[in-house]
Each structure stands twice: as structure tokens, then as C-alpha cells.
Design a protein that fits this description.
single chain; Immunoglobulin-like; 10-stranded mixed sheet; 27 helices; 28 strands; binds zinc ion
Length: 888
């Protein structure tokens, strides 16, 4: 009963923009935004005075604007800047301007002091100002680090989405493209980087004035500057000079990123038929102060751990992450930079496409990573959210600037990318590519909307792509397809129907135009399901029932009629690999939703040890999230011990078969599988696995035998989870002294999982002791909450120390609004979902509502599964463990 209360509340608070909206083509005047379209910038001459050791900076910008009709004043964005002088230059000479700052809107209103309007025509705004250096990546920020053992600091920028206004006054919306001509005055001895190559460097004594070649026309959020001392690893691809830049002493870690970029650039040039547009491509590894990566044109920046790789210590998982992130950011040089989303409402045109393209490139260059088989487990989380109450459409309407990070989410990236894959499969890769090439050529150095994209892909394919696409981009959720089949006179009659897949059973009349793929014997059929139901007949009656979505590319779930499901479960180890993974994923989701039992999912798991195909590693890695979900749902119930026993019985023989010593030349899938098994067996308390990991760690700690790269991360996670005070202290020392971002994250996330409650309290205390970078420190409570045993501890700590943690988190990527929802990740009681919604409202108001609703929906789902399964799952879990122990 409390469950449905929490869900009703989450639903009531959910802000959905409404039914599908039209998808018009790009029109500057019609593009949504805060600023008036009567004043349009075309050129910024921006000069910054930057010193890595200073906490403030100064700037002067001259913006050429076209005033399209007389206006009393000009409004542009500026935030946390102090004006020193403000002038309007035009045909009628210099006019002083008064500045009225609006802190809420983050704007300056500039009004001539003479009281006269500003005439139509071209003018220049000359604005001198001071600004502040940020502590984390929201604007111009300082990144403290160790350079060859000495403390140092560099300056870097992160201006997306709405932070250019913290560095210079700007028309800070994506549709206001302009040329940026940068100059930076910096102390002698520092290198200065920007989007474009240097044009000149003038020695001024203690300082040097660095001027850069003007950029092409681009939005303000893509401007990038960095000042520091750097090592560079240089290369080139397709005639473009490439550099990977690191802080001094880390160039050796740049080789993998350089090689990756050398593969990607020619591949993208060829795919789009439009070459990379700038004269160079630099990629900078920022040692602290930022998360993730940013695609700034010609100067992409990354957190160190997402760009740099040490073959001596790095795992295959890290290599995959780096390849994928570099592929994503380089793809943005086309999707986002060359052609920019018209407004934040259309940000999926940047992000879904970069996600989709990165996947294509990653699979192309690394077929041994089995990307297609891993795709479903990558998408499962977004599907879970999208089948609950706290979701939104990919194009969900107007995006307020103070909540812009809400649309940089799994719906935009993951669902958006997956929907593109599905549409590409439906249209055919060649026509899809032809349409994208035409779109790129037509819209380059400009902006675009969904209407532009579907126009060009529709032209290339001769299909009504827009209508099919809109049913996926403009409404929430996705369908569940019911399939029932029977043999009639030697042919198979297949009945298909669709309804929204809902975790809560909420009624919903939504319909999709679903591109379906059906495997029937040796044949593969495609069709577009438009209505609520459809019946088709295919020749022959093969032994296996028809498989729907066998390749797993469709963003929908499938419910087979019981008779067909039983046949498929029986034949599980003979199904095509991707069909096995899709069946596991769909069966688990149906059980979460109460449309089948978790026991049905356990029956499929019992067959997993017999699977020896290409999907072996991917299928087992999927159990990580399903068993983890069940662990969170069943904590505090008598079913949890049988769950742990069953998980150990399932996983331990797999690890025993692989062994702990990787043979030389082992494939990356096997390496990944071994790593996962070690971590999961430690999670489920397998004493032998923990003891083996501890012995390896102790030998490494004593300096006897370094941990091999293939095992290192998994062993550290296993040891940290079961740490005693001695090993805990050793791991904390490593966390505090490691000079590398990837290692700091590894130690922090591992230590946060510690089972011992007193040690978990010590992990929480680390967040406030000032020794860790603020982004890691502020996330520690959320990491601790990932162990559901410490949910209350992590949440209570976050509420108690809210002010300090919020200060550490800052605003980059909406980090502050994730603090409480992250710390509530260990809850599974409806009353805790309500508590989260109340606390978030009290501490953050409207700006935090969406993130709290998302986690409240997850808590409600865990509670619902607990209510249904805690009693009835005990016996099936015990019998699964018994069955597995009997197997040889
Ligand atoms: Zn991106």
C-alpha cells in the first residue's frame, strides 16, 4: 500500500511536456531561448588575463552584433562577472552603457546612459570585467596536481551547458553561433591551448600574449582555453596534426588515446563524407577538478582516467571505456560542433548521435569486445527507468536553463542512441548513412532540429521516417510486444500486440510504430507494427517458436505466450547468442514488473553454465546488475541468505574453470569475465575468493609481486569490500597518495563498498577531510550507499553534512542535485522514497525534483519486488543452489 503511495506521488510530481509535438526544420527566429533574436552576434574578440596561481581573472571582449530593429537595451548572459567598463561602439561613436545584472536569469541588461535607443545596424559591445576561477569544472577552473613530484595547478574550461557566461559575457545559447578570436595573456613559462592553433606569441616581459587563429562559426559553449605546463604525444591522421596533452610526466600513458584517435578520424571522415573541419585536434587530460569529457572543437578535454591508460596496471574494462569515450567526443566534432542542436530542447541531436556513432566505431575497430552482445545490458538501466513513472520523452519540450542538466541523462544518451540503432536497422545502414551525409553537408556550420534530420534521412530512404521516429522521440516509454504463435496447416500464425511496458501496471494508451525483426527458422523477417495488434503468417513450422528482436537492436521488450516461453527456456543453450541475452533481459524485466515470477528468471540462470558461445562473458556480466538488484530488494528479508548462496553456487564454478592466472594472449572477453566473477563472488561473500584476493593484495602491498593488470582492479574491489582495519588503512593510504585519477576512483569506489560499518563511517569521514579532489569527496556518500547494508548511514551523513557536501559537489553536470538521490541508492522502503522527495524539496526546491523522483521510483520498484518475492523466492533460490551444486 505504501508502495503505491510513493508511486502516485512520484507520478504527480513528474513533469512531462505532453503528447508528441511537431518537428519543424531549423529557423533561427523560431528557436526557443531566453535572449531576444533582435540582436545577433557574429564575432567575439576575447582577451583573457590568466594566471594558474590566481583565484581571479580579468577579461575584455568586443562583440560585433547586428541589431535587427531598434532596441532600448541589449540583454546577454553574464554570471559571477563584475563589469569594469561597458561601451557601445557604432556609427555614432562611443556610448557608455549601464549594467543591470539579473542573478537569477544570469544576464546583464546593457542600456545606453544617454537614454536613446540603439539603432538597427551593426555595433560593437566592448566589455571589460573580472571573474573568478572555479574549483570544479563549471566555467574556468583550477586543477591542482602533482607535476614530477611538485605541487602545480593548471587552468582549464568546461563551458557546456551554460557556463561560458562565467568566463565572458556572451549570447550563451547554441543558436547564437559566432567567430571567436581569442588572446590570452599568461605568465611566462606557461603553455596556452585553445580551440585553434596559435597565431602569435608576443613577449611582454613577465608575461606573454598568446593570440589564436579565429574559430569557424560556433556556439559559445564550445570555447576552450587551458593554461599550464604540458607534455605532448604527437601524431597525425588524415592530414590533421593530433596531440594528446598531459601534465608533465604522464606522456607514456597517452599512447592508447593517440592510437585510438588515429583510427577514428579517417573512419569518421569516410563515414560522413565531410572531413574534420579544423586544422588540428588536441586532447587534454585534466588531472583533477572535472568529470567525464567535453568535446570542445579542436581541444577536447577529459578527466585523466577517461583518456590516459597505463598498460602495466590498466584493465580491459578501462581500455573499452577510453576507446568509447574518445570515439564519442571525436564524433561530436561532427555531431554537435559542425552541426549543432538548435537549442537544449534538441540536445539529443548532439548526444544520442555521438553515443550511437561511438558504438559503431568501437564495434568496427574492436570486434573481439562483442559490443553487439553487450548492448542490451548497457541499455537495461535506461529501459528500467523508461518503464517507470519518473521518465520523460527524448524530446520533452522546453528546458529551463537552471535545470538544463536534467536532459543530459540516460534518456538522451542511452535511449536516444539505441533508438537510432533501431531506426538504422529498419532503414538499412547504407541509406541511413546517405541521409546523414546529406544532413551534415546541408547543415554544416549551422544548427539543426529533428525536422532537418528526418527530412534528409527520409529523402535518402524514400520512407516516412519522421512519423516512425517521432513515436520514439516524442513520447515517454516503449512498448511490450506480446507474441503468440501456432502452427496452422504447415504455416506459422503469429499474433503480435503492443502496449506500453510499465513497471507499475499503469494503464496507458500509447502506441509506437515498431520496426520488428522476427527470426523464423533460418529466415529473418522485418515489419513495421503500427497498430495495437497484427497477425502475420510465415511459411513452415520450425521446432523453435519465432524469435522476436533476436539481435537485441529493438528498444522494446517481448513477452512470449507461456507455451512459447517454455520451449525457448528449454532450448536456451541452443538459441543464437544475442537472443539468449535478450531473453534473459526481458524475462528479468517482466519479473520486476510482476508480469512473470523471478523463479522464471532463475530457470534461465540455471541454464547459463551450459552456455559456451560468444555471449558467455556478456551473459554473465548481465547477472551483475540483476543479482545486484535482487540483493538490494531482498536485504532485510529471509530470502537474502539463499540469494547469496545461490549466487555463489552459480558463479564459483565459473571462476574455478577460468582459474586466476590469465594465460598469455588471453582474449579480452575472458579477462573481463574473470574480473566480474571475482568482484561478484566477493559481493556474495565467497570466502575462498576473498582469501585468494587478499593473498594477492598482500604480496603486492609488501612489494613482493605486483598485481597483474588483468586482475588488479577486481582484486582491489574484493579486498576492500572485506577489508579489516589493516588492509583498510593500506587502501586509504593508496587513495590519498596516488597521483593518478583512475587509481583514485578505483580506491574510492572500492573502499566505499566496505562491509564493516565502522570502516564505512571512516570512508564517509574522508569526504570532509580535504585530502581528496572535491568531485570524488562529494560522491563518497553515494558510493557508500551502493552497498545497501549502509544505506541509512550514507543518507544520514549526507543530510547532516549537506552544506559542506554541496559546496564540494558544485554545479557541474548538476552534481549537487544528485547528492541526496545518490545517497538514497541503498533504500528499499516506500517511506524512504517519500523521505528523499521531502528532503530534496527542502534543500534544493524545484531544481532537484527530477533526480529525486528517479531514485524514488527505483526505491518503489525494489519495494514492490520485495513485497512480491521475499517469501515466494526462497524455495526456488534454495533449489537453484542445490541443482547447481549437483552439476559436475
Ligand atoms: Zn557527448
Amino acid at each position: 500500500m505504501n508502495v503505491s503511495n510513493a508511486l502516485a506521488l512520484a507520478l504527480a510530481l513528474c513533469s512531462w511536456a505532453g503528447p508528441a509535438t511537431a518537428q519543424p526544420r531549423f529557423d533561427f527566429d523560431q528557436t526557443p531561448g531566453l535572449l531576444s533574436k533582435h540582436v545577433r552576434p557574429s564575432h567575439y574578440a576575447l582577451q583573457l588575463v590568466l594566471d594558474p596561481d590566481a583565484e581571479r581573472f580579468s577579461g575584455e571582449v568586443t562583440i560585433a552584433v547586428t541589431v535587427r530593429q531598434p532596441v532600448p537595451h541589449i540583454v546577454l548572459h553574464a554570471h559571477q562577472l563584475t563589469a569594469r567598463s561597458t561601451m557601445l561602439l557604432g556609427g555614432d561613436g562611443e556610448r557608455a552603457l549601464t549594467v543591470t545584472a539579473d542573478d537569477k536569469a544570469q544576464t546583464w541588461q546593457l542600456r545606453p546612459t544617454d537614454g536613446q535607443p540603439i539603432a538597427a545596424g551593426t555595433h560593437r559591445l566592448r566589455l571589460a570585467y573580472d571573474g573568478r576561477v572555479q574549483r570544479s569544472g563549471a566555467g574556468l577552473f583550477g586543477a591542482p596536481h602533482q607535476a614530477l613530484g611538485q605541487p602545480a595547478r593548471l587552468l582549464a574550461t568546461q563551458l557546456e551547458a551554460v557556463y561560458a557566461r562565467r568566463v565572458f559575457p556572451a549570447f550563451d545559447e547554441p543558436a547564437f553561433r559566432s567567430v571567436f578570436e581569442l588572446a590570452v595573456r599568461a605568465p611566462k613559462g606557461y603553455e596556452v591551448l585553445s580551440n585553434m592553433p596559435p597565431a602569435s606569441a608576443v613577449d611582454e616581459g613577465a608575461q606573454v600574449l598568446h593570440r589564436f587563429v579565429p574559430t569557424p562559426s560556433m556556439p559559445s559553449y564550445l570555447v576552450a582555453v587551458a593554461v599550464g605546463r604540458f607534455d605532448a604525444l604527437s601524431g597525425q591522421a588524415a592530414g590533421v596534426p593530433l596531440r594528446i596533452l598531459t601534465v608533465p610526466g604522464k606522456r607514456d600513458r597517452a599512447a592508447y588515446a593517440l592510437k585510438t584517435t588515429e583510427q577514428l578520424l579517417p573512419y569518421y571522415n569516410d563515414y560522413f563524407g565531410v572531413p574534420y573541419a579544423l586544422p588540428k585536434l588536441d586532447q587534454l587530460a585534466v588531472p583533477s577538478g572535472r568529470d567525464g569529457a567535453m568535446e570542445d572543437w579542436g581541444l577536447i578535454s577529459y578527466s585523466e582516467g577517461t583518456l590516459l591508460f597505463d598498460p602495466a596496471t590498466g584493465s580491459v574494462r578501462q581500455r573499452r571505456t577510453i576507446f568509447n569515450i574518445v570515439a564519442h567526443e571525436v564524433a561530436h566534432q561532427w555531431f554537435g560542433n559542425l552541426v549543432t542542436a538548435a537549442s537544449w530542447d534538441e540536445i539529443w541531436l548532439n548526444e544520442a548521435f555521438a553515443t550511437w556513432m561511438a558504438r559503431k566505431a568501437t564495434d568496427h575497430f574492436n570486434p573481439d569486445w562483442q559490443g553487439p552482445l553487450r548492448q542490451r545490458s548497457y541499455v537495461d538501466g535506461a529501459m528500467e527507468r523508461d518503464s517507470g513513472p519518473a521518465t520523460r520523452a527524448i524530446r520533452s519540450g522546453s528546458v529551463p536553463e537552471n535545470r538544463v542538466f536534467e536532459v543530459f541523462d540516460d534518456i538522451t544518451y542511452t535511449k536516444g542512441g539505441a533508438v537510432l540503432s533501431m531506426l538504422e536497422q529498419w532503414i538499412g545502414p547504407a541509406k541511413f548513412r546517405a541521409g546523414l551525409g546529406a544532413y551534415m553537408r546541408a547543415r554544416r556550420f549551422s544548427n539543426a532540429t529533428a525536422g532537418d534530420l528526418w527530412f534528409h534521412i527520409g529523402q535518402a530512404s524514400g520512407r516516412d521516417v519522421a512519423a516512425v521516429a517521432a513515436s520514439w522521440t516524442d513520447q515517454r516509454g516503449f512498448p511490450l510486444i506480446h507474441l503468440a504463435s501456432r502452427c496452422v496447416d504447415g504455416a506459422t500464425r503469429i499474433e503480435l500486440s503492443q502496449q506500453r511496458f510499465s513497471m507499475t501496471g499503469a494503464a496507458d494508451g500509447s502506441r509506437w510504430q515498431v520496426p520488428l525483426v522476427i527470426r523464423h527458422g533460418e529466415r529473418t523477417e522485418t515489419l513495421l507494427l503500427k497498430g495495437a495488434q497484427q497477425t502475420i503468417t510465415l511459411p513452415g513450422c520450425p521446432t523453435l517458436p519465432p524469435l522476436l528482436n533476436p539481435g537485441g537492436e529493438g528498444f522494446y521488450r517481448v513477452a512470449y505466450a507461456p507455451a512459447q516461453h517454455a520451449v525457448l527456456a528449454q532450448a536456451f543453450d541452443r538459441l543464437p547468442p544475442s537472443a539468449r541475452i535478450t531473453l534473459l533481459s526481458d524475462t528479468f524485466a517482466l519479473a520486476q514488473a510482476g508480469q512473470t515470477t523471478m523463479a522464471a528468471y532463475l530457470d534461465l540462470l540455471a541454464a547459463l553454465p551450459r552456455v559456451q558461445g560468444a555471449d558467455k562473458s556478456a551473459a554473465w556480466s548481465g547477472t551483475r546488475s540483476t543479482l545486484g538488484f535482487l540483493d538490494g530488494a531482498l536485504i532485510g528479508t529471509p530470502a537474502r541468505a539463499p540469494l547469496h548462496a545461490a549466487a555463489r553456487a552459480l558463479l564459483a564454478p565459473q571462476l574455478a574453470a577460468l582459474g586466476w592466472t590469465p594465460p598469455s594472449g588471453e582474449d579480452s572477453e575472458t579477462e573481463a569475465l574473470r574480473g566480474n566473477l571475482i568482484v561478484e563472488l566477493a559481493r556474495f561473500g565467497d570466502a575462498a575468493t576473498v582469501a585468494r584476493a587478499q593473498a594477492l593484495f598482500d604480496a603486492d602491498e609488501a612489494g613482493r609481486t605486483p598485481l597483474p593488470a588483468a586482475l588488479r582492479a577486481s582484486v582491489i574491489r574484493a579486498v576492500a569490500r572485506h577489508a579489516d582495519p589493516v588492509r583498510f588503512k593500506q587502501l586509504v593510504a593508496r587513495l590519498k597518495t596516488s597521483p593518478h585519477d583512475d587509481d583514485r576512483w578505483l580506491y574510492a569506489t572500492s573502499l566505499a563498498q566496505v562491509e564493516d560499518a565502522d570502516l564505512a563511517r571512516q570512508v564517509l569521514a574522508l569526504s570532509l577531510d580535504g585530502r581528496l579532489p572535491p568531485n570524488i569527496a562529494s560522491r563518497l556518500p553515494g558510493m557508500v550507499a551502493d552497498n545497501p547494508a549502509h544505506g541509512e548511514l550514507a543518507y544520514g551523513f549526507t543530510v547532516e553534512h549537506w552544506t559542506a557536501l554541496a559546496d564540494l559537489a558544485g554545479t557541474m553536470y548538476g552534481a549537487r542535485s544528485w547528492l541526496l538521490p545518490g545517497a538514497a541508492g541503498g533504500f528499499n522502503r516506500p517511506e524512504d522514497a517519500q523521505r528523499l522527495l521531502r528532503d530534496q524539496q527542502r534543500l534544493l526546491g524545484e531544481t532537484g525534483a527530477a533526480n529525486a523522483q528517479r531514485i524514488a521510483a527505483q526505491i518503489a520498484l525494489l519495494a514492490a519486488v520485495q513485497a512480491r518475492e521475499a517469501e515466494r523466492l526462497r524455495a526456488p533460490l534454495q533449489s537453484l543452489a542445490a541443482r547447481l551444486q549437483r552439476q559436475p
